[in-house]
Design a protein that fits this description.
Radius of gyration: 47 Å
Largest sheet: 10 strands, antiparallel
Strand content: 35-45%
Helix content: 10-25%
Number of helices: 9
Structural class: alpha+beta
Protein backbone atom coordinates (compact mmCIF):
# COMPACT_ATOMS: atom_id res chain seq x y z
CA UNK A 1 0.00 0.00 0.00
CA UNK A 2 1.27 3.38 -1.10
CA UNK A 3 1.80 5.79 1.70
CA UNK A 4 0.50 9.36 1.44
CA UNK A 5 3.12 11.95 1.64
CA UNK A 6 3.14 15.66 2.23
CA UNK A 7 3.84 16.06 -1.48
CA UNK A 8 0.54 14.29 -2.34
CA UNK A 9 -1.43 16.59 -0.06
CA UNK A 10 0.04 19.63 -1.75
CA UNK A 11 -0.89 18.24 -5.19
CA UNK A 12 -4.52 17.71 -4.08
CA UNK A 13 -4.66 21.28 -2.71
CA UNK A 14 -3.27 22.65 -5.98
CA UNK A 15 -5.90 20.69 -7.93
CA UNK A 16 -8.75 22.03 -5.73
CA UNK A 17 -7.53 25.58 -6.06
CA UNK A 18 -7.24 25.14 -9.85
CA UNK A 19 -10.77 23.80 -10.06
CA UNK A 20 -12.17 26.72 -8.08
CA UNK A 21 -10.29 29.19 -10.27
CA UNK A 22 -11.55 27.45 -13.43
CA UNK A 23 -15.14 27.50 -12.08
CA UNK A 24 -14.93 31.22 -11.27
CA UNK A 25 -13.50 32.00 -14.74
CA UNK A 26 -16.27 29.98 -16.42
CA UNK A 27 -18.96 31.80 -14.42
CA UNK A 28 -17.59 35.18 -15.46
CA UNK A 29 -17.34 34.10 -19.09
CA UNK A 30 -20.76 32.37 -19.18
CA UNK A 31 -23.41 34.43 -21.11
CA UNK A 32 -26.07 35.99 -18.87
CA UNK A 33 -23.89 36.26 -15.79
CA UNK A 34 -22.13 39.45 -14.75
CA UNK A 35 -20.14 40.40 -11.66
CA UNK A 36 -21.73 42.78 -9.20
CA UNK A 37 -19.58 45.43 -7.63
CA UNK A 38 -19.91 45.42 -3.87
CA UNK A 39 -21.69 48.58 -2.57
CA UNK A 40 -24.26 49.54 -0.02
CA UNK A 41 -27.93 49.01 -1.07
CA UNK A 42 -29.74 47.11 -3.84
CA UNK A 43 -27.70 46.19 -6.89
CA UNK A 44 -29.77 43.39 -8.44
CA UNK A 45 -33.42 43.85 -9.56
CA UNK A 46 -36.28 41.53 -10.43
CA UNK A 47 -38.46 43.21 -13.08
CA UNK A 48 -42.25 42.78 -13.10
CA UNK A 49 -44.61 44.12 -15.80
CA UNK A 50 -48.33 44.04 -14.94
CA UNK A 51 -47.50 41.57 -12.15
CA UNK A 52 -45.55 39.17 -14.43
CA UNK A 53 -41.77 38.73 -13.93
CA UNK A 54 -40.01 39.47 -17.22
CA UNK A 55 -36.38 39.23 -16.11
CA UNK A 56 -33.63 40.64 -13.95
CA UNK A 57 -31.22 43.53 -14.39
CA UNK A 58 -28.59 45.45 -12.50
CA UNK A 59 -29.89 48.88 -13.48
CA UNK A 60 -33.40 50.41 -13.27
CA UNK A 61 -32.88 52.55 -16.37
CA UNK A 62 -32.20 49.41 -18.39
CA UNK A 63 -35.69 48.08 -17.54
CA UNK A 64 -37.30 51.38 -18.57
CA UNK A 65 -35.47 51.35 -21.89
CA UNK A 66 -36.65 47.81 -22.59
CA UNK A 67 -40.25 48.88 -21.86
CA UNK A 68 -39.98 51.83 -24.26
CA UNK A 69 -38.67 49.51 -26.98
CA UNK A 70 -41.50 47.02 -26.34
CA UNK A 71 -44.13 49.79 -26.55
CA UNK A 72 -42.81 50.95 -29.93
CA UNK A 73 -43.26 47.46 -31.31
CA UNK A 74 -46.98 47.35 -30.39
CA UNK A 75 -48.68 49.40 -33.18
CA UNK A 76 -50.85 47.24 -35.40
CA UNK A 77 -50.15 46.40 -39.00
CA UNK A 78 -52.33 49.33 -40.07
CA UNK A 79 -50.11 51.71 -38.15
CA UNK A 80 -52.79 52.64 -35.61
CA UNK A 81 -52.02 53.08 -31.93
CA UNK A 82 -52.70 50.27 -29.46
CA UNK A 83 -53.86 50.99 -25.92
CA UNK A 84 -52.33 48.66 -23.30
CA UNK A 85 -51.92 48.85 -19.54
CA UNK A 86 -48.22 48.97 -18.50
CA UNK A 87 -47.35 48.95 -14.79
CA UNK A 88 -43.61 48.43 -14.23
CA UNK A 89 -42.36 47.32 -10.81
CA UNK A 90 -38.81 46.51 -9.66
CA UNK A 91 -37.83 44.72 -6.46
CA UNK A 92 -34.15 44.94 -5.50
CA UNK A 93 -31.66 43.01 -3.43
CA UNK A 94 -27.93 43.17 -2.64
CA UNK A 95 -25.81 40.36 -4.22
CA UNK A 96 -22.19 39.70 -5.23
CA UNK A 97 -23.09 38.31 -8.63
CA UNK A 98 -26.17 36.99 -10.38
CA UNK A 99 -27.64 36.11 -13.76
CA UNK A 100 -29.17 39.14 -15.53
CA UNK A 101 -31.57 38.90 -18.46
CA UNK A 102 -30.38 40.10 -21.84
CA UNK A 103 -32.04 43.20 -23.24
CA UNK A 104 -33.52 41.41 -26.24
CA UNK A 105 -34.89 38.67 -24.04
CA UNK A 106 -36.44 41.15 -21.57
CA UNK A 107 -37.90 43.28 -24.39
CA UNK A 108 -39.53 40.21 -25.97
CA UNK A 109 -41.00 39.18 -22.62
CA UNK A 110 -42.37 42.69 -22.07
CA UNK A 111 -43.86 42.74 -25.56
CA UNK A 112 -45.70 39.48 -24.85
CA UNK A 113 -47.17 40.94 -21.64
CA UNK A 114 -48.22 44.13 -23.40
CA UNK A 115 -49.90 42.27 -26.23
CA UNK A 116 -51.85 40.28 -23.68
CA UNK A 117 -52.91 43.51 -21.99
CA UNK A 118 -53.72 45.30 -25.24
CA UNK A 119 -57.35 46.33 -25.04
CA UNK A 120 -58.19 47.83 -28.36
CA UNK A 121 -56.65 49.59 -31.33
CA UNK A 122 -56.85 53.36 -31.00
CA UNK A 123 -58.16 55.03 -34.11
CA UNK A 124 -57.58 58.56 -35.26
CA UNK A 125 -60.80 60.56 -34.87
CA UNK A 126 -62.28 63.99 -34.14
CA UNK A 127 -63.80 64.75 -30.74
CA UNK A 128 -66.57 67.36 -30.61
CA UNK A 129 -67.15 69.20 -27.30
CA UNK A 130 -70.43 71.09 -26.71
CA UNK A 131 -70.42 72.44 -23.13
CA UNK A 132 -70.32 69.21 -21.03
CA UNK A 133 -71.40 66.99 -23.94
CA UNK A 134 -68.67 65.09 -25.84
CA UNK A 135 -68.98 62.91 -28.94
CA UNK A 136 -66.31 61.46 -31.27
CA UNK A 137 -66.50 60.80 -35.02
CA UNK A 138 -64.11 59.23 -37.53
CA UNK A 139 -63.38 62.16 -39.85
CA UNK A 140 -63.80 65.88 -40.33
CA UNK A 141 -66.42 65.11 -42.99
CA UNK A 142 -68.39 63.13 -40.39
CA UNK A 143 -68.15 66.10 -37.99
CA UNK A 144 -69.56 68.42 -40.66
CA UNK A 145 -72.32 65.92 -41.46
CA UNK A 146 -73.18 65.67 -37.76
CA UNK A 147 -73.36 69.44 -37.22
CA UNK A 148 -75.24 69.94 -40.48
CA UNK A 149 -77.70 67.29 -39.34
CA UNK A 150 -78.50 69.25 -36.19
CA UNK A 151 -79.67 72.15 -38.38
CA UNK A 152 -81.96 70.08 -40.61
CA UNK A 153 -85.04 70.52 -38.40
CA UNK A 154 -84.75 74.31 -38.59
CA UNK A 155 -83.42 74.58 -42.15
CA UNK A 156 -85.31 72.05 -44.29
CA UNK A 157 -84.36 73.87 -47.52
CA UNK A 158 -80.62 73.75 -46.79
CA UNK A 159 -80.05 77.53 -46.87
CA UNK A 160 -77.23 77.38 -44.32
CA UNK A 161 -74.01 75.40 -43.98
CA UNK A 162 -71.54 74.70 -41.16
CA UNK A 163 -67.96 75.96 -41.32
CA UNK A 164 -65.02 74.57 -39.34
CA UNK A 165 -62.09 76.93 -38.82
CA UNK A 166 -59.16 77.21 -36.37
CA UNK A 167 -60.10 78.95 -33.14
CA UNK A 168 -57.89 82.08 -32.98
CA UNK A 169 -58.32 82.32 -29.20
CA UNK A 170 -56.68 78.94 -28.54
CA UNK A 171 -52.97 78.18 -28.66
CA UNK A 172 -53.48 74.50 -29.39
CA UNK A 173 -54.98 73.23 -32.65
CA UNK A 174 -58.70 73.53 -31.94
CA UNK A 175 -61.40 73.98 -34.57
CA UNK A 176 -64.58 75.90 -33.87
CA UNK A 177 -67.91 75.70 -35.72
CA UNK A 178 -69.98 78.53 -37.18
CA UNK A 179 -73.05 78.71 -39.43
CA UNK A 180 -73.23 80.84 -42.61
CA UNK A 181 -75.71 81.11 -45.44
CA UNK A 182 -74.99 79.30 -48.67
CA UNK A 183 -74.73 82.67 -50.44
CA UNK A 184 -72.19 83.94 -47.91
CA UNK A 185 -70.21 80.73 -48.21
CA UNK A 186 -70.04 81.07 -51.98
CA UNK A 187 -69.05 84.73 -51.68
CA UNK A 188 -66.22 83.84 -49.29
CA UNK A 189 -64.95 81.17 -51.64
CA UNK A 190 -65.08 83.58 -54.59
CA UNK A 191 -63.16 86.28 -52.68
CA UNK A 192 -60.56 83.72 -51.55
CA UNK A 193 -60.17 82.52 -55.15
CA UNK A 194 -59.75 86.06 -56.44
CA UNK A 195 -57.21 86.94 -53.77
CA UNK A 196 -55.20 83.86 -54.70
CA UNK A 197 -54.78 85.03 -58.27
CA UNK A 198 -55.40 88.80 -57.90
CA UNK A 199 -54.68 90.15 -54.37
CA UNK A 200 -56.24 93.55 -55.14
CA UNK A 201 -59.62 91.88 -55.64
CA UNK A 202 -60.01 91.58 -51.87
CA UNK A 203 -59.55 95.33 -51.49
CA UNK A 204 -62.12 95.91 -54.24
CA UNK A 205 -64.63 93.69 -52.41
CA UNK A 206 -64.21 95.74 -49.20
CA UNK A 207 -64.68 98.96 -51.16
CA UNK A 208 -67.83 97.58 -52.81
CA UNK A 209 -69.30 96.76 -49.38
CA UNK A 210 -68.44 100.25 -48.09
CA UNK A 211 -69.96 102.04 -51.06
CA UNK A 212 -73.08 99.88 -50.83
CA UNK A 213 -73.52 100.97 -47.21
CA UNK A 214 -73.48 104.61 -48.34
CA UNK A 215 -76.46 104.17 -50.65
CA UNK A 216 -79.73 105.67 -49.34
CA UNK A 217 -82.18 103.19 -47.84
CA UNK A 218 -85.22 102.55 -50.01
CA UNK A 219 -88.59 102.54 -48.23
CA UNK A 220 -90.01 99.03 -48.50
CA UNK A 221 -93.61 97.90 -48.47
CA UNK A 222 -94.88 94.72 -46.84
CA UNK A 223 -94.64 92.89 -50.17
CA UNK A 224 -90.94 93.74 -50.49
CA UNK A 225 -89.83 91.67 -47.51
CA UNK A 226 -88.40 88.21 -48.02
CA UNK A 227 -90.09 86.38 -45.18
CA UNK A 228 -88.76 83.16 -43.70
CA UNK A 229 -85.50 81.99 -42.19
CA UNK A 230 -82.96 84.81 -41.86
CA UNK A 231 -80.15 83.31 -39.80
CA UNK A 232 -79.04 80.19 -37.91
CA UNK A 233 -76.38 79.76 -35.28
CA UNK A 234 -75.22 77.54 -32.42
CA UNK A 235 -75.77 79.01 -28.94
CA UNK A 236 -73.13 76.87 -27.24
CA UNK A 237 -69.50 77.11 -28.36
CA UNK A 238 -68.46 74.03 -30.33
CA UNK A 239 -64.84 72.85 -30.21
CA UNK A 240 -63.33 70.09 -32.36
CA UNK A 241 -59.97 68.45 -31.67
CA UNK A 242 -58.10 65.57 -33.26
CA UNK A 243 -57.65 62.58 -30.95
CA UNK A 244 -57.08 58.81 -30.73
CA UNK A 245 -59.77 56.60 -29.19
CA UNK A 246 -60.90 52.96 -29.17
CA UNK A 247 -63.26 52.16 -32.03
CA UNK A 248 -66.06 51.40 -29.57
CA UNK A 249 -66.10 55.07 -28.51
CA UNK A 250 -66.50 56.43 -32.04
CA UNK A 251 -70.01 56.80 -33.47
CA UNK A 252 -71.56 57.79 -36.79
CA UNK A 253 -72.86 61.23 -37.69
CA UNK A 254 -76.49 60.06 -37.52
CA UNK A 255 -75.98 58.53 -34.08
CA UNK A 256 -74.36 61.77 -32.90
CA UNK A 257 -77.31 63.83 -34.20
CA UNK A 258 -79.81 61.63 -32.33
CA UNK A 259 -77.77 61.78 -29.14
CA UNK A 260 -77.21 65.54 -29.08
CA UNK A 261 -80.82 66.37 -29.94
CA UNK A 262 -82.31 63.94 -27.41
CA UNK A 263 -84.33 66.11 -25.05
CA UNK A 264 -83.89 66.04 -21.29
CA UNK A 265 -86.02 67.72 -18.63
CA UNK A 266 -84.43 70.95 -17.33
CA UNK A 267 -85.78 73.22 -14.59
CA UNK A 268 -86.37 76.86 -15.49
CA UNK A 269 -88.00 79.90 -13.91
CA UNK A 270 -91.11 81.49 -15.45
CA UNK A 271 -91.75 85.07 -14.35
CA UNK A 272 -95.47 85.64 -14.00
CA UNK A 273 -96.78 88.37 -16.33
CA UNK A 274 -100.06 90.25 -16.18
CA UNK A 275 -102.88 87.96 -17.32
CA UNK A 276 -100.99 84.72 -16.55
CA UNK A 277 -102.90 81.87 -14.92
CA UNK A 278 -101.62 78.60 -13.49
CA UNK A 279 -103.48 76.58 -16.12
CA UNK A 280 -102.10 78.82 -18.88
CA UNK A 281 -98.52 78.46 -17.61
CA UNK A 282 -98.93 74.67 -17.39
CA UNK A 283 -100.30 74.54 -20.97
CA UNK A 284 -97.45 76.69 -22.31
CA UNK A 285 -94.79 74.33 -20.96
CA UNK A 286 -96.76 71.16 -21.74
CA UNK A 287 -97.20 70.29 -18.06
CA UNK A 288 -100.17 69.02 -16.12
CA UNK A 289 -101.54 71.40 -13.50
CA UNK A 290 -100.80 68.83 -10.78
CA UNK A 291 -97.15 68.59 -11.88
CA UNK A 292 -96.79 72.38 -11.91
CA UNK A 293 -98.20 72.64 -8.37
CA UNK A 294 -95.92 69.81 -7.18
CA UNK A 295 -92.85 71.72 -8.46
CA UNK A 296 -93.76 74.83 -6.47
CA UNK A 297 -94.24 74.27 -2.70
CA UNK A 298 -95.89 77.69 -2.26
CA UNK A 299 -98.73 76.66 -4.59
CA UNK A 300 -101.38 74.63 -2.75
CA UNK A 301 -104.00 74.11 -5.46
CA UNK A 302 -105.25 75.44 -8.80
CA UNK A 303 -106.80 78.43 -7.04
CA UNK A 304 -103.50 79.61 -5.50
CA UNK A 305 -102.94 83.34 -5.96
CA UNK A 306 -100.12 84.42 -8.30
CA UNK A 307 -99.06 88.00 -9.02
CA UNK A 308 -97.02 89.63 -11.81
CA UNK A 309 -93.32 89.30 -10.99
CA UNK A 310 -93.70 86.00 -9.10
CA UNK A 311 -91.26 83.24 -10.08
CA UNK A 312 -92.76 79.86 -10.98
CA UNK A 313 -90.53 76.80 -11.43
CA UNK A 314 -91.26 74.86 -14.61
CA UNK A 315 -89.52 72.04 -16.48
CA UNK A 316 -88.87 72.22 -20.19
CA UNK A 317 -87.39 69.59 -22.50
CA UNK A 318 -83.98 70.75 -23.70
CA UNK A 319 -81.42 69.06 -25.98
CA UNK A 320 -77.66 69.20 -25.40
CA UNK A 321 -77.27 71.64 -28.32
CA UNK A 322 -79.31 74.83 -28.65
CA UNK A 323 -79.99 76.16 -32.15
CA UNK A 324 -80.79 79.88 -32.41
CA UNK A 325 -82.82 80.82 -35.46
CA UNK A 326 -84.27 84.13 -36.68
CA UNK A 327 -87.43 83.95 -38.79
CA UNK A 328 -88.99 86.98 -40.42
CA UNK A 329 -92.78 86.77 -40.20
CA UNK A 330 -95.80 88.81 -41.27
CA UNK A 331 -98.88 88.86 -39.06
CA UNK A 332 -101.84 90.98 -38.07
CA UNK A 333 -102.81 91.40 -34.45
CA UNK A 334 -104.96 93.25 -31.99
CA UNK A 335 -102.92 95.19 -29.51
CA UNK A 336 -103.34 97.28 -26.37
CA UNK A 337 -101.72 100.68 -25.86
CA UNK A 338 -99.61 101.14 -22.74
CA UNK A 339 -101.57 102.46 -19.77
CA UNK A 340 -100.97 106.11 -18.94
CA UNK A 341 -100.75 106.91 -15.23
CA UNK A 342 -101.33 110.32 -13.66
CA UNK A 343 -99.91 110.59 -10.16
CA UNK A 344 -101.86 112.30 -7.40
CA UNK A 345 -99.61 113.22 -4.50
CA UNK A 346 -102.53 113.81 -2.14
CA UNK A 347 -103.95 110.28 -2.53
CA UNK A 348 -102.82 107.07 -0.91
CA UNK A 349 -101.44 104.34 -3.14
CA UNK A 350 -104.58 102.32 -2.42
CA UNK A 351 -106.65 104.94 -4.27
CA UNK A 352 -107.05 105.08 -8.07
CA UNK A 353 -109.62 106.21 -10.62
CA UNK A 354 -109.90 105.27 -14.33
CA UNK A 355 -110.13 108.55 -16.27
CA UNK A 356 -110.27 106.95 -19.74
CA UNK A 357 -111.27 103.43 -20.76
CA UNK A 358 -108.98 101.68 -23.26
CA UNK A 359 -109.84 100.74 -26.86
CA UNK A 360 -108.12 97.79 -28.57
CA UNK A 361 -106.20 98.63 -31.75
CA UNK A 362 -105.28 96.56 -34.83
CA UNK A 363 -102.00 96.55 -36.75
CA UNK A 364 -100.01 94.83 -39.51
CA UNK A 365 -96.51 93.74 -38.58
CA UNK A 366 -93.32 92.37 -40.11
CA UNK A 367 -91.08 91.14 -37.30
CA UNK A 368 -87.84 89.21 -36.86
CA UNK A 369 -88.62 86.57 -34.23
CA UNK A 370 -85.64 84.89 -32.57
CA UNK A 371 -86.13 81.29 -31.42
CA UNK A 372 -83.94 79.04 -29.31
CA UNK A 373 -84.84 75.59 -30.53
CA UNK A 374 -88.63 75.95 -30.82
CA UNK A 375 -89.27 78.60 -28.15
CA UNK A 376 -89.50 82.31 -29.09
CA UNK A 377 -87.17 84.44 -26.97
CA UNK A 378 -87.14 87.85 -28.67
CA UNK A 379 -89.21 89.83 -31.18
CA UNK A 380 -87.87 92.77 -33.18
CA UNK A 381 -90.55 94.63 -35.16
CA UNK A 382 -89.10 95.58 -38.56
CA UNK A 383 -92.17 97.28 -40.05
CA UNK A 384 -95.48 98.21 -38.48
CA UNK A 385 -98.64 99.73 -39.89
CA UNK A 386 -101.55 100.70 -37.66
CA UNK A 387 -104.96 99.90 -39.10
CA UNK A 388 -106.93 101.00 -36.02
CA UNK A 389 -105.09 103.00 -33.37
CA UNK A 390 -105.37 101.73 -29.80
CA UNK A 391 -106.66 104.14 -27.17
CA UNK A 392 -104.71 103.90 -23.90
CA UNK A 393 -106.28 103.55 -20.47
CA UNK A 394 -105.63 106.63 -18.34
CA UNK A 395 -105.52 106.06 -14.58
CA UNK A 396 -105.12 108.59 -11.80
CA UNK A 397 -103.39 106.98 -8.85
CA UNK A 398 -102.17 107.95 -5.43
CA UNK A 399 -98.51 108.11 -4.49
CA UNK A 400 -98.64 108.42 -0.70
CA UNK A 401 -98.08 105.28 1.36
CA UNK A 402 -101.19 104.64 3.54
CA UNK A 403 -100.83 104.59 7.33
CA UNK A 404 -100.30 101.31 9.13
CA UNK A 405 -101.89 99.92 12.29
CA UNK A 406 -100.16 98.08 15.13
CA UNK A 407 -101.33 95.96 18.06
CA UNK A 408 -102.41 98.43 20.81
CA UNK A 409 -101.00 96.59 23.86
CA UNK A 410 -98.06 94.36 24.74
CA UNK A 411 -98.98 90.80 25.64
CA UNK A 412 -102.47 89.62 26.52
CA UNK A 413 -104.75 87.33 24.54
CA UNK A 414 -107.98 87.62 22.55
CA UNK A 415 -110.79 86.81 24.97
CA UNK A 416 -113.63 87.69 22.56
CA UNK A 417 -113.37 87.97 18.78
CA UNK A 418 -115.10 90.18 16.22
CA UNK A 419 -118.70 89.58 15.09
CA UNK A 420 -121.55 87.43 16.34
CA UNK A 421 -121.24 85.94 19.78
CA UNK A 422 -123.27 84.90 22.84
CA UNK A 423 -123.64 87.89 25.17
CA UNK A 424 -121.11 87.42 27.99
CA UNK A 425 -123.41 89.25 30.46
CA UNK A 426 -126.71 91.06 30.53
CA UNK A 427 -126.63 94.20 28.41
CA UNK A 428 -123.59 93.13 26.39
CA UNK A 429 -123.81 93.08 22.57
CA UNK A 430 -124.29 89.84 20.65
CA UNK A 431 -122.69 91.45 17.58
CA UNK A 432 -119.24 92.37 18.84
CA UNK A 433 -117.92 95.52 17.10
CA UNK A 434 -114.27 94.89 17.95
CA UNK A 435 -111.99 92.45 19.77
CA UNK A 436 -111.39 92.11 23.51
CA UNK A 437 -107.74 91.73 24.57
CA UNK A 438 -107.44 90.37 28.12
CA UNK A 439 -104.67 92.24 30.00
CA UNK A 440 -104.21 93.29 33.66
CA UNK A 441 -105.67 96.64 34.76
CA UNK A 442 -103.13 99.43 34.26
CA UNK A 443 -101.51 97.96 31.14
CA UNK A 444 -100.28 100.72 28.79
CA UNK A 445 -102.53 101.24 25.74
CA UNK A 446 -100.79 102.65 22.63
CA UNK A 447 -102.18 104.45 19.59
CA UNK A 448 -102.51 101.85 16.86
CA UNK A 449 -101.93 104.57 14.26
CA UNK A 450 -101.07 108.26 14.38
CA UNK A 451 -103.94 110.73 14.24
CA UNK A 452 -106.13 113.21 16.17
CA UNK A 453 -107.99 112.38 19.39
CA UNK A 454 -111.73 113.11 18.96
CA UNK A 455 -113.10 111.57 22.20
CA UNK A 456 -111.40 110.99 25.54
CA UNK A 457 -113.71 110.30 28.51
CA UNK A 458 -116.76 108.37 29.61
CA UNK A 459 -119.08 106.70 27.08
CA UNK A 460 -122.08 104.54 27.96
CA UNK A 461 -121.20 100.87 27.70
CA UNK A 462 -117.55 101.61 26.81
CA UNK A 463 -116.70 103.11 30.21
CA UNK A 464 -113.63 105.29 29.82
CA UNK A 465 -112.86 105.46 26.08
CA UNK A 466 -110.49 107.11 23.55
CA UNK A 467 -111.43 107.68 19.86
CA UNK A 468 -108.72 108.59 17.34
CA UNK A 469 -109.39 109.84 13.79
CA UNK A 470 -106.73 108.90 11.19
CA UNK A 471 -105.59 110.50 7.92
CA UNK A 472 -106.97 107.66 5.78
CA UNK A 473 -110.49 108.30 7.09
CA UNK A 474 -110.47 105.39 9.52
CA UNK A 475 -111.15 105.58 13.25
CA UNK A 476 -109.86 103.48 16.14
CA UNK A 477 -111.64 103.09 19.49
CA UNK A 478 -110.17 101.92 22.82
CA UNK A 479 -112.71 101.00 25.57
CA UNK A 480 -113.06 99.95 29.26
CA UNK A 481 -110.00 102.04 30.17
CA UNK A 482 -109.03 102.74 33.77
CA UNK A 483 -107.51 106.10 32.79
CA UNK A 484 -107.30 108.34 29.70
CA UNK A 485 -103.88 109.97 29.15
CA UNK A 486 -104.85 112.23 26.18
CA UNK A 487 -107.41 114.96 25.49
CA UNK A 488 -109.76 115.69 22.54
CA UNK A 489 -108.02 117.63 19.75
CA UNK A 490 -104.58 116.29 20.71
CA UNK A 491 -102.37 114.86 17.93
CA UNK A 492 -100.76 111.53 18.72
CA UNK A 493 -98.17 109.38 16.94
CA UNK A 494 -98.23 105.65 16.30
CA UNK A 495 -97.15 103.74 19.42
CA UNK A 496 -97.67 106.71 21.75
CA UNK A 497 -99.17 105.80 25.16
CA UNK A 498 -102.76 107.15 25.24
CA UNK A 499 -104.42 105.29 28.19
CA UNK A 500 -104.27 102.53 30.78
CA UNK A 501 -106.43 99.44 30.42
CA UNK A 502 -109.13 98.70 32.96
CA UNK A 503 -112.56 97.21 33.67
CA UNK A 504 -114.93 100.20 33.38
CA UNK A 505 -118.33 100.28 31.70
CA UNK A 506 -120.21 97.14 30.73
CA UNK A 507 -117.22 94.82 31.21
CA UNK A 508 -116.76 91.24 32.32
CA UNK A 509 -113.21 91.68 33.60
CA UNK A 510 -109.97 93.57 33.01
CA UNK A 511 -109.39 93.91 29.26
CA UNK A 512 -109.09 96.35 26.34
CA UNK A 513 -111.91 96.64 23.80
CA UNK A 514 -110.33 97.65 20.44
CA UNK A 515 -112.16 98.69 17.26
CA UNK A 516 -111.30 99.90 13.75
CA UNK A 517 -114.09 101.66 11.82
CA UNK A 518 -114.11 102.49 8.11
CA UNK A 519 -116.77 104.96 6.96
CA UNK A 520 -118.41 104.60 10.35
CA UNK A 521 -118.78 100.80 10.08
CA UNK A 522 -116.84 98.44 12.34
CA UNK A 523 -114.46 95.95 10.66
CA UNK A 524 -112.39 93.13 12.11
CA UNK A 525 -109.30 95.01 13.36
CA UNK A 526 -107.10 91.92 13.15
CA UNK A 527 -107.35 92.14 9.34
CA UNK A 528 -105.68 95.56 9.34
CA UNK A 529 -102.94 95.17 11.96
CA UNK A 530 -99.26 94.84 11.06
CA UNK A 531 -97.62 92.62 13.66
Amino acid sequence: MRRRTTHDSKIRLWRLEGSLIALAVSLFLMPGFEPVIRHEGNNYFHVFLNGTEVGTCADEEEALECLRTARRSLPSEGGELVFAEAELELTGEEVYWGRVTGRREMTDAMEDVLRTAAQETLERCYTVKIADFIVSLRSKEEVLAFLQGTLAKYDPDGQFVVNLAPDPTREINVLTASVVSVGEQEARQEIALREEYLPSAGIQAVWNQFSQALLPKVQTDFEDYELGLQSLDFVEKIEVVESYLPASQIITAQEAVEEVLREKETSQIHEVAAGDTLSGIAFRYDLSLDDLIAMNPLLTDENSLIRPGDNITVTVPEPELTIRSCIQEYYEEDYEADTIYKDNNSWYTTQSVVLQEPVTGHRRVVADITYENSLPVFTDIVKEETVVAAVPMIVERGTVAPPTYIYPVSGGFISSGFGGRKAPKAGASTNHQGVDIAVPTGTAVMASCGGTVTVAGWQRGYGNVVYISHADGRETRYGHLSKCLVSPGQTVTQGQRIALSGNTGNSTGPHLHFEIRIGGSAVNPLNYISY
